[in-house]
Amino acid sequence: MPEQIFGRKILRFDQVQSTNDLVRDAAEQGEAEGLVIAAQEQLAGRGRMGRRWIVPRGTSLQCSILLRPPLAPQHASRLIQMAALAVARTLERELHLQPTLKWPNDVLLDGKKVCGILTESSIVGETLAYVILGIGLNVNYTMRAYPELAPFATTLQDVLGYAVELSRLERALLHESDALYARICNGESLVEEYRARLAMLGQPIRVLERGEILQGIAEDVDADGALILKQDDTRVKLLAGDVTIIK
Ligand code: BTN
Question: 53, 61, 65: which to mutate for ligand 1, most atoms within 8 A of CB?
């Protein structure tokens, strides 16, 4: 059995500003990889693209993980794919659900977002000093209380109709992450499995990137995690952005 990295040390907090910030402080102080910081409640939970991440206290998985992968900075996106896949595999194995992925790092159930991932990296010179994986998985509450979000977002409780044991879910997620991380550290890319789970390949999409809206066909995702958008005869490579499938 290989040594377990994820959850080597787990710190649990009742209330924090953002678990990503606490992990960053620990990383800057030299903490080893594998640290997990989990919180019942975040007062300043952060999402991608400057958004806030707010979920009712004690209902969900909100945690951040410190990694120090032996990867070049341009391969950091492999960790985003890894985290999304670990969540998808956990939902599949533990709860027999059929999640799909939305580039770059959302996990969907029935086409709605159930989990978001926020990665933050520190690059020193030519090396990736550390990566923080922040994972927010909506679990034991209902989106019916949030009519403005309900068309796009869901919770495990909404999908399953019952409450899920958070500690079991967390354990399974750390276990799945560990197995995938070992492959990443061996130099593997997980893009094949990631691609196979992407909901939007071949479909017309709209991408919001740095204030600009681009439209085209979601053609592929390359080994470094870039989305290849086909526009007539040209192809645009996108490293970040917010995607909507055009119905
Ligand atoms: C997104 O989809 O926009 C990403 C959401 C990430 C939320 C998680 S919850 C734990 C960690 N701490 C944060 O402040 N954000 C991430």
Answer: 53
- CB atoms < 10 A from the CB of 169, how many? 21
Task: Answer yes or no: is the C-beta of 116 below 6 A from any ligand 1 atom.
Answer: yes
Whether 108 lines ligand 1, by a CB cut-off of 6 Å, is: no
Mutate to test the pocket of ligand 1, among 35, 59, 118, 208 (most ligand atoms within 8 A of CB): 118
Cα dihedral 162, 165, 169, 170 sign: positive
Q: Which atom of ligand 1 is nearest to the CA of 113?
A: 2
Tokens 């969907």, residue located = 108
Percent of the chain that is helix, strand, coil (3-state, to 5): 30, 35, 35
Tell me the Ramachandran region of residue 215: left when phi exceeds 0, alpha when psi lies from -120 to 50, beta otherwise: beta
Q: What is the pLDDT of residues 44-95, one digit of tens each?
A: 999 998 999 999 999 999 999 999 999 999 999 999 999 999 999 999 999 9
Q: Which of 113, 102, 99, 19 is nearest to 66 (CA)?
A: 19
Query: Domains, the chain, ranges and CATH?
Result: 9-196 (3.30.930.10), 200-245 (2.30.30.100)
Atom of ligand 1 nearest to the CA of 20: 12
Q: What is the pTM of this model?
A: 0.96
Beta-strand runs (E) in 61-190:
61-67, 100-102, 106-109, 112-124, 127-137
